[in-house]
Amino acid sequence: MSQQTNYFKHGYGSVPRAFILCTEDLAIPLEFQLWMIQNAGINDVEEIKGADHMAMFSESQELCDSLLLLASKYA
C-alpha cells in the first residue's frame, strides 16, 4: 500500500489514537490489523482475544472494559 497520506499533523496527527485488536476478525485479518497499527500512528492497542469483527456482540464485556480503560487514559 502507498505510504502517501492525506492527513496532517495539526489535525488527525494531533490527537492520540487507539486500536482495539480483534483476534478472530475474519473481515479484517490479523495481519492487516497489525499493518494498520504500524502505519496509522497508533498510540495504544487493546487486544480482545476471541473477538470477531463485531466485538460488541462477540465479546461485549471485554469491549466495554477496553473502551473504559482507553477513556480513562485519554480523558
TrEMBL record:
Keyword Hydrolase part of the UniProt annotation: yes
Source taxon at top rank: Eukaryota
An example Gene Ontology molecular-function term: methyl salicylate esterase activity
A biological process term (GO) from this entry: salicylic acid metabolic process
Gene3D superfamilies: alpha/beta hydrolase
Keyword terms, alphabetized: Hydrolase
Key word Plastid present: no
Protein name per the record: Salicylic acid-binding protein 2
Lineage: Eukaryota, Viridiplantae, Streptophyta, Embryophyta, Tracheophyta
